[in-house]
Design goal:
CATH superfamily of the largest domain: GOLD domain
Region (Disordered): 109-183
Subcellular location: Membrane
Main location: membrane
Radius of gyration: 34 Å
Helix content: 40-55%
InterPro entries: Emp24-like (IPR015720), GOLD_dom (IPR009038)
Strand order of the largest sheet: 1-8-3-6
Strand content: 15-25%
CATH topology of the largest domain: Jelly Rolls
Low-confidence stretches: 108-136
CATH architecture of the largest domain: Sandwich
Protein name: GOLD domain-containing protein
Shape: extended
Structural class: alpha+beta
């Protein structure tokens, strides 16, 4: 009975996750703002995800901030009243705000990986010559030579440790920079940690042109925490994958008659592999669709700029030609325009 209740709960969670998997598409008018709102607990991570789909310019200002209203607000009217108070300067706790500009047509270039050379060979010492010379010296000289050798080795060990530490720091910085690079076709994401209970909002503000965008706001409590690979809250797609994994783990060969346990385990492992492959394909398809949209819009903008440039050149050429014709006709007609 417990297993059946658990399966029912997992299936309901799976259906709810499927219903929430698609990000919201919003149309943002010129200089207008569209927002999503979520009630967040203190210490909870929230991720904002934005992808610009279309517009005369794939550029917008986005920000995530809060708390904009106390946690006791439960109605839309109360929320709007608190937002108006927040906009006039009232604060409902320690405010967290992150604001940045999204430009889908100009991606960051991936930084080249720094070449990290292993300098351990530079600290190798040839001890054979020292030992040969030491045999010809007195016992006192041998003692001094041993002390000098120990001091050299100690300094070499310190130098090697410093070199390893520098390489480790450079590698860590390289990984941090690489983690900030967004691949083409991926949405722009930003994660904050709430410091005070209350309502938070993720907003997108249009520029001088109307734009269409996919906007998403994900809470760690709803999706199972932070993804270690990205540093952001798990996506709904990954939550679906995890729920399906749990459903597979809950199934057992003992529930059905005539099924061998080994065959069942082999089948379950194959299903896991197929699900991982399907999840990767879906992710790549979504990324490819976004990439094609960006390329299409960028090409349209480039074509429009070329058309406007050609039109301006044509108008300028016609104006110069007309002025030349007018000037020459005046000159031949005996005008004093050029005879002075």
């Amino acid at each position: 009975m417990i297993n059946q209740d658990m399966r029912l709960f997992l299936r309901i969670s799976y259906l709810l996750a499927m219903a929430s998997a698609m990000p919201m598409q919003v149309n943002v008018n010129q200089r207008a703002t569209e927002c999503l709102y979520e009630k967040v607990d203190a210490g909870e991570a929230v991720t904002m995800s934005v992808f610009l789909l279309s517009g005369s310019e794939l550029k917008a200002t986005v920000y995530i901030e809060g708390p904009i209203a106390p946690p006791g607000v439960n109605s839309g009217l109360e929320l709007q009243t608190s937002i108006n108070e927040y906009n006039t300067g009232q604060r409902f706790g320690q405010v967290v705000k992150e604001q940045f500009v999204v430009d889908m047509e100009h991606l960051q270039a991936t930084p080249e990986a720094e070449e990290i050379k292993d300098d351990d060979d530079a600290f190798k010492y040839d001890d054979d010559d020292d030992d040969d010379d030491a045999t010809e010296k007195s016992e006192q000289d041998l003692e001094k030579a041993r002390k000098r050798m120990e001091e050299k080795r100690r300094r070499a060990q310190i130098a090697r440790q410093k070199a390893r530490e520098m390489r480790r720091k450079r590698e860590q910085q390289r990984k941090e920079r690489a983690a900030k690079i967004r691949e083409e076709g991926e949405p722009v994401q930003k994660t904050i940690t709430a410091k005070t209970d209350g309502w938070y909002r993720a907003c997108i503000m249009g520029s001088w042109f109307q734009i269409a965008a996919e906007l998403e706001m994900r809470k760690a409590s709803d999706l199972g925490g932070i993804d270690g690979e990205t540093g952001h809250v798990f996506t709904y797609e990954k939550q679906l994958f995890q729920l399906e994994e749990q459903l597979l783990d809950e199934d057992s060969a003992s529930d059905e008659e005539g099924i061998d346990e080994k065959d069942f385990e082999k089948t379950r492992e194959m299903l896991r592999r197929l699900r991982r492959l399907l999840s990767d394909i879906q992710s790549k398809q979504m990324q490819e669709r976004h990439r094609l949209l960006v390329h299409k819009t960028t090409n349209e903008h480039s074509h429009a700029r070329m058309v406007m440039g050609s039109l301006f050149q044509t108008v300028l050429f016609i104006a110069v030609t007309a002025f030349q014709v007018y000037t020459i006709r005046k000159w031949f007609s005996g005008s004093q325009l050029l005879a002075r």
